[in-house]
Amino acid sequence: MKSHPPYCEGAVKPFVPEYVFDELDKLGILNSEIGDVNLRDAITRLFGLKEDDEYVYRASGTTTLGLMQRAVMARRRNGLLDWYVGDREEGGGKETLIPDPSEITAYTKLFSPTTHLPSALRAYQFSAKKNTLRKSIADHLTSRYQNTAPGLLPSKKQSQSHPHINPYLTFWTLSCHLLQWAGPWLATRKTTISHHVLPVFYHHFGCVVPSFHALWVIAKLAQPNKPSKENVKPILDIGSGNGYWTYMLRRLELEQGMKKLEVYPVDDGTSEYRAMWVPDTIRTSGLEFLSQDHECPPYESLDLGGNGQSFSRPKLKPQGGRNCVLLLVYPQAESDFTGPVLKKFRGDTIVVVGTQNRNGFTGFKGEDVDEWVEREGLGFELVIRIPLPSFCGKDEALFVFRRKEGS
């Protein structure tokens, strides 16, 4: 029987989320030579696991920490790292491209908390040489970028001066170097392979990395139009999984004048996670939650996990999500989830985190969520689409929709 969350199944000591942030600095992962980092040992230490841990991680495949580490050490054997397979320019056939460390670093730096994303994307594309893998990746990422909502992305000053620690981002950056991943290109939509690292990350952190830019956009969307007269808009994290996005939103340091966020994690518990980051997940489906006429009870934590960081969640009457921000992180395409929830929502702001290359892994088969929203005529328009840190062979983005005037 699992403990009351937060917990990490099989840990030798109680899982205190805030201790993960403290321990991360001690690990010094990104200050070490990449080849010297043992990913299994780092996960074991960070989450307080036994050295002979045999937990079976289940996601798109199954693995253990031992199998994962052996796969990492196998490097390119058996096509494990064939993320970039393209047509040969001469002689026909296929060729496998291998990014060098500088290409990988250039990609991962796009998502540094100190990076001004719009400027970084422009510089990333401008500095890429013709007929290179980096140029293909840069062209793809910039072609998908969209921002018609000024003031939501963090400014240069906010990015450069804002303190932000994100364990998932640190481990994702490490994985990019270990697995020779320099970002998605157009052909990523055809990628069918994955890696043993993914189920481990999925269980401990979640399906996709919440970048500082993404968290900041969501926090800004939740701010009222009239701060002196209106309350902050509740963020409904529907399909919250293990709660990592909720935790990071609650932990996000805001600017002076911004109102403290109120995040409601909602999940029916269909998917299994080894680590649970928040204690207050509302166990129901998204449709049932939005349909509730009764008030959702308040919840108050005296401490996020040992560092004196408290959070509170006032009582809420969902009413279809009126005056709320709907957050859907990695809604799977296999289930009939995304469409009904989007149609049920009565608020004015929707944030979806998912694939942006029509690979059908999240949202909808054969089309991206922005195409579906437009086709269904829900009265929303896409105002932001920004790239997110994508795991090897994936192509993730943050989509922001706002209700059109008169809809």
Automatic annotation (TrEMBL):
This is S-adenosyl-L-methionine-dependent methyltransferase. PANTHER family: C3H1-TYPE DOMAIN-CONTAINING PROTEIN-RELATED, S-ADENOSYL-L-METHIONINE-DEPENDENT METHYLTRANSFERASES SUPERFAMILY PROTEIN. It comes from the Eukaryota.
